[in-house]
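Regression report. Comparing outputs from two consecutive submissions.

Submission 1:
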Amino acid sequence: MAEAPTREYYFNPQRECARVHLPISAAVSAFSHNEFENLAVLRDISTSGAFFFCDSPLETGSDVCLQFILSVLGRDIHVTCSGTVVRVEEPRESGKGIAMRFLSCDLRELQ
């Protein structure tokens, strides 16, 4: 049986905002050098940013757009977040680890 996440995982006093574990698929795009769009897998998200894995040429300081769909109470919400890459971790099986800070987010209900 899997262990329940600890409270420390969701809230760490050194962090600005609490994180929520959210392992879902997403799309990430960047427009700084060459326009591209890659698949990504979110690991966690907060009101100030997200951490995801992807195979892309992203570097610290890149401007990015992250898009995904959340199902909330039977409704699908399309989420689009724009921001800046603040950290890039070494590649793993699921791609590079990318931490981004949000500059803006838009939520729209899908019809």
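Submission 2:
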Amino acid sequence: MAQATSPAQARRVTTAKQEPPPGGAPLTRLLALAFPYWPRLTAGGLMLVLNSFITLAIPLTVQQLVDGITGPHRMDSLGQSILLLVAVSVISATLNFGQ
């Protein structure tokens, strides 16, 4: 006579496939656990790198704003600099949300 499996036993069987191999180096075990999620991890890493570059662009934009006000061009490029600062901030916020 075959035994019926309970839902808890069925869950243990399905989650056992995701267990890392016993023993081995911790990094090997971590990579074995992370492998099914590599697309998400890659996308998150790319967003992190892009967000770092965008965050570094904010001081350059502020420099343009300050130079636009105090420099020889005065108010000619002020609107463009403000628009650039807003665009950089929106892109940075979007990448932060995506992480």
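Expected: both submissions complete independently.
Actual: both completed, but the second showed a warning that disappeared on reload.
Relevant detail on submission 2: The chain has four helices and no strands.
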